[in-house]
Amino acid sequence: MLALLVGRSHEVISGLTLRDERGASTSHARTSVRFRPLDGAAIDRYVERGEWRGRAGAYAIQESGAALVTGIEGDFFNVVGLPVALLVEMLSARRRPVSG
């Protein structure tokens, strides 16, 4: 998996649905992650750490996997697992009174 990501960009897309007595709203967040070029030895060293286990993309950007990445565009927390910016936006929209 990591060999497919190195030297390239990929997108992390997370969906989020909020539901209350007024109904449900669904949206998604998209974050672009750019990986640095890595050789096989560097990938092996990361894999040996074991933090890739249980990770959808085989890396943990919030841990030593940050060293694999040259940059991101979008919500860092979306890559970690919860699109916080989107959640705050959706919760704020839910607080507004429903007109009608």
Task: Write a concise keyword list for the protein shown above.
elongated; 3 strands; 31% helix; alpha+beta; 100 residues; three-stranded antiparallel β-sheet; 4 helices; Maf protein
Give a written overview of the molecule:
The chain is of the alpha+beta class. It has one domain (2-95): Maf protein, CATH 3.90.950. 31% of the residues lie in helices and 30% in strands. It contains 4 helices and 3 strands; from the N terminus they run αββαβαα. It has helices at residues 2-5, 40-49, 76-80, 84-95, and strands at residues 9-20, 23-35, 69-73. Strands 1-2-3 form a 3-stranded antiparallel β-sheet. A hairpin with a 2-residue loop joins strand 1 (9-20) and strand 2 (23-35). The mean pLDDT is 92.
Secondary-structure element order, as H and E? HEEHEHH
Radius of gyration: 17 Å
Structural class: alpha+beta
Low-confidence runs (pLDDT<50, min 5 residues)?
Answer: none
